[in-house]
Amino acid sequence: MKSKTLVCIAIACIFIFSISMAQDKPSPKSGNFDIEKDLLLAHFDCKTDVDDLQTAAALATLMSHTNYSEINYHAVAGTYGIQEGLYVPPNDLFQLAFGDHWTDAHENTQNAIAQVKVIATATLKNQGDVWIADAGQSDFSAELIKAIQADLPDMDMSQRIHIVQHSDWNEEVTSPAYLDFVKKNIDYQKIPDGNGVGNGTPGFRSPEYHQWKDKIKNPKLIQVWQLAIDLSNKYNGKDGRYNNEAIAAGGLDFSDLSEVCWILGLQDLRIQNIFSIVMRIK
Known about the structure:
The chain is of the alpha/beta class. Helix content is 46%, strand content 13%.
């Protein structure tokens, strides 16, 4: 009887160990995103809310995790629509956070479309899907999709290109023709607002949360977050830009990451979880 008990305990230990290893091992699928084939495009308007700066830092943090470090991703700055107000210059931050994985659409929109089209078209030709997290308006996304269609006229874009949008305001200040185009021609997914909590998306906006320094050990990520916060404080509410109250209070706002989390099946993450994730990243 005693030997049977020991065998059962051993089997249970092996089972628990296997589950633990499976959780740590990157899966080829994350949500609806295929890590082995798909492309993640993160489009940031950077006009006029500084939350995009902190979202960029959060994206760099997530992409540093073992489970997501193999994702083929590319960020684009300056993908704004028809809203008024001044731009928030993100170039130093994007260079530090993303290295070669970003493009500047603010400087030259047509060049940016051409550059990103090459990346997206290569993914589509290799049987991968393109997932766009519109952390802003869909004007740039619409122009990009039209350029891809011109190169791949026989491909069914409604099955292969996906846009995820979380903000009513972002839709309101997207050029109406562009918004209509993306809704009719590709897989357009409108999700609950990432600024809220308990609505099905992560709550990544908090005026109280500022304990990130206690969590991050990786020197590069510390630099990224510090620069994001310094730039946020420099431009928040300045010269008529939007005043982000959470950031003004000393907290954090990276609510636009909710779209990336939706794409990757990470809807249950909360603001503190992002920093818990990086505690293992040295």
